[in-house]
Amino acid sequence: MDFFYVLLQLISAIMVAPLFDGISRKLRAKFQSRMGPSIFQTYYDIYKLLKRGRTKSHSASYIYQIAPYVLFISAAAMFCALPITYGTNAIALSQFSDIFVLLYLGALFRFTFIVAGFDTANPFSGVSASREGTMGFYTEEVAVICLIVVMMGAGSTNLPFIVHSVLEGHYGYAIPSFSIAATAFLWVMYVETGRKPYDLAEAEQELQEGVLGEFCGKDFALIDIAILLKQFAVLGFFLVIFVPWGIVENPILSLIIFLAEVGFLYVMGVFIDNFGPRFTMNKGMKRTMLYALAVSCTALVLYIMGI
Amino acid sequence: MQTIYTLFLLASLLSLLLYKKPLLAQKVGFGLASVISLYAAIFFFSNLNDTLLWKLPGSFISAPLFRLDSLGMFFSFLVSLVAFAVSLFSFDYAKFYENKANLAVFASLFNAFILSMLLVIASDNVFSFMLLWEVMTLISALLILINDGKDAGKNVMIYLGIAQIGAFCLMVALLIMASVAGSFEFSKFAEMEIGFGMSLTLFVLLLIGLGSKAGMFPFHVWLPLAYCQCPSNASALMSGVMIKVALFAFIKFSLLLPSLVQFGYILLFVGALSCIFGIIYALISNDYKAAIAYSSCENVGIIFLGLGGAFYGLGTNSPTIALLGFVAGFFHILNHAVFKSLLFMLSGNVYTATQTRNMDLLGGLHKKMPITSIIFFVAVIAICALPPLNGFASEWVVYKTMVMGGIHEGVVSRFFFTLAIIALSITGAMAIMAFSKVYGAIFLGVARDTQKIENAKEVSFIRLLPLSLLASLCVGIGVFMNDVIGMLSNIVFTLIPQTTTSIQGLISMPIIIMVMLLCAIIPFVLLYLLKANHKEARITDPWACGFLYNKNMQIGSNAFTGDIKKALSFILRYESEVKIDGYFSKAVYTHKTHDLFWEKLYAPVIDFIMVIADKIGVFQNGRTNLYAGYILIYLCLILMFGYYYL
User: Fold this and answer.
1) Which of A6, A262, B9, B27 is the least buried, fewest Cβ under 10 Å from its Cβ?
2) How far is A63 from chain B (nearest CA, A)?
3) Do B538 and A56 touch (CB under 8 A)?
4) Which chain A residue shows the shortest CA-CA distance from B566?
5) In chain B, what percentage of residues exceed pLDDT 70?
6) A contacts of B366 (beta carbons < 8 Å)
7) How far apart are CA B305 and CA B329, in angstroms?
8) What percent of chain B has a predicted confidence (pLDDT) above 90?
9) Domain tally for chain A?
10) Per-residue pLDDT tens over the stretch B131-143
11) What is the DSSP string of B408-453?
12) How far is A247 from chain B (nearest CA, A)?
């Protein structure tokens, strides 16, 4: 039964994620005084890509073949690790829903991205693979510092357990370090969704997605879905830890509330995305991530002091 | 147990006797080694929970006692397991060194090296331990010299120098312990009564003595030099198991001291530094073997983090943390032995095929060596600690230990444990970059130097067999992580009787795999339902913005780490230089990275010693009269000393 709910959780996310993407595209267009595409445009795009033929680089090896699937699996597994439709009672799945499992599934996603970038021998995918790795270096420690506060404060790395204790009020916003960590964590999760000012394009090709420069047709469609799922998973990661009140007894209801929340955050991202400046790689990351790091370190120091 | 040691000795002697026929000696020596170590691995594994004793017959060198308890059995098993794979690999690989050294000597040294490691683990008194320890160091130094080259002498001297610093500290620590305990036998050491300051000093001495051999920061400088110089099978043994022998001795001796919380803090701190610096140097090196070598420093750091948690647990009387910590340490020791020896052997395959260690010249090797490439990919996933392989399993246990330790009240413990987690997470992020780069630059993309790649071909079946064996072990240990943890906790129970709790709240790898498989179904269903276009892809050049594609357009290993090098410029020193003469000639780009700790810590000391040696040299000028004079002066001094003080 638990596995059924997880499947439901995943499939419904795949179904609605393009809708929210469409809404945010529409909203961004309105900001820029354009008509903008229909809010169902992302569905059309994916459908169109599925029907297209493909070309591939002569250097592409098996990595090119499996990359779309591995990216999809890691993003989907990340999303499944969020305990939305199942709680602490789900014995099997609570052995899976763990903070480090989620983080390292994210790492698997990044790893596949980088290796795929090398595989095609495309100059742009190489540069953007390098950027993907460097971004990971910048964001990982901030995310982990915030999570340290949460894990040690709640006393476990198990996500359902943490959600449960925040819901029950054993642990939560009454503790200063937790609330400060929430700020920094939301920041990092926004960075992970890869929008401006963390988009870091320096050429005509959008470099952060430059890895995908050589992908096309059904492969590209799958990767598109995988990226959407990953963005949902990282925003959901913030939500289940820091805003878990949408998770109720009824799994279907909590799934609906959760998807609405994630969608809302996703669309709200446009407000930063649209007005965010473009930085160069080193300046942008160094300058902006330092603040996030400082915030998270404040939370950590407060935790160490026992506040 | 005796049989195994005797057999290794005989194999070593036999291959030496065949020195007139090197090729036969290679087959006999490495073949015997693989058979004996397979037998040894089975033997040690089946006796994992027993204690065996053995004495040298007669009164040969004061009849030292050899003793294997549960911990020793585990490490002996590890040595023989890796030795089995490596010797099977060398059965074919060693002929590559035919022109550099006599293969009979190589095979003989190889057997002797395995034997010396097994005996170090088993030896039960100070004298035999130190003797065998030095023998092990010397044999490994000779193995480095098998691949004689331009810098071989220098690299071996650095290795031996650091080994000597270590052996000195170790000797001092053991002698102090022996004098306090009143016996040279390790089994009598347990009843020592020593104060706080003394035990801390002993601990630090042990850490320097054994950590330097394990490649701990800041003694990591010998790692890239020695491992790159070595033939790959020898570096697989050295990195896979020799540093584990050092860790074994460290665990064994430091458990004899009264446990203090400070031990845990020291280990956590050193471990965190080792992790970070090890992986930074691994990340920026353009030599794949050096990258793998530096990552040994990183992995030893991770092991130290686990052990640090364990000592903290012992010091604060919290059996759960102690148990978790030791299990984490042992688990990562096991995993590192498997994937690191695998990676070194694979790098040997790459080197024999291409004759270069520079990643900026390689690329596209997957097309030539597909099986090596796929095994390399598995090893890379394991070392990057990605689910669902074994590296992730053990790192997860390390993380769990750190979190459990950090929950305790107390500013100091929280500080050290959070420091450890942050270090580990940064390491994780950089390890992914470092090893995706190593894999991508060697096997993927287009060949950067076509001449190097042209003649590369897949290695023989006998070389691939042990590699695929270790690769499947990487997967197997990952999947059955809970059983392995159960087995390791049994060893910890015999080691520290007070830890009788079992580990709760583990993740379950089969369920992770099941969820991943469940997710894997969805894309296929989706593609089927929406009737995707499954036509075969058209092969083209990579897209280069409309320009004609050139293989130099793809990213190289050096450029890949450019951004992160700039970000880390506060702890890294590098120089890059671009030489352009004229518009039409090719620009020459040179890049050099310095090991800061070599320049700041070691180079001044070496320079100082050179100066002193120069000054002392005045005394030794070859004149016999002067030497007679020295003897005269010495005699006078001794007589005066004897007259007044005795």
Assistant:
1) B9
2) 9
3) yes
4) A282
5) 98
6) 61-62
7) 8
8) 47
9) 1
10) 999 999 999 999 9
11) SS-HHHHHHHHHHHHHHHHHHHHHHHHHHHHHHHHHSS--SSHHHH
12) 21
Instruction: Test B522 with A55 for CB contact under 8 angstroms.
Output: no
Tokens of A163: 């959600």
Domain residue spans of chain B:
1-175+219-246, 302-528
Residue A205, token pair as written in the block: 């090709």
Q: Using a CB-CB distance cutoff of 8 angstroms, which residues of chain A are in contact with residue B533? A: 50-54, 217-218
Do the chains contact at B551 and A121, CB–CB below 8 Å?
A: yes
Interface residue of A73, A212, A283 to substitute, partner B, most B CBs within 10 Å:
A73
Range of the domain at A61: 2-305
Establish, for the pair of chains A and B, how many residue pairs have beta carbons separated by less than 8 Å. Answer: 276
List CB contacts (< 8 A) between B396 and chain A: 98, 100-101, 104
pLDDT at A169 over 60: yes
Of A127-141, B480-494, B544-558, where does the model show the most confidence?
B480-494
> Which residue from B49, B512, B63, B536 is spatially nearest to A76, judged by alpha carbons?
B512
The ipTM of this complex is: 0.94
CB A238 within 8 A of CB A189: yes
Predicted structure pTM score:
0.93
Nearest residue in chain A measured CA to CA from B517: A73
Q: What would you measure as the largest C-alpha separation in chain B, in angstroms?
A: 105
Task: Please tell me the distance from the alpha carbon of residue B157 to that of residue B144, in angstroms, as a whole number.
Answer: 11
Residue A156 DSSP label: -
pLDDT for res B269: 94
Q: For residue A197, is the peptide bond before it cis, meaning its omega torsion is within 30 degrees of 0? A: yes
Residue A84 structure tokens: 């939305």
The mean pLDDT of chain B is: 88
Contacts of B543 (CB under 8 A, 6+ apart): A122, A124, A213, A214, B549
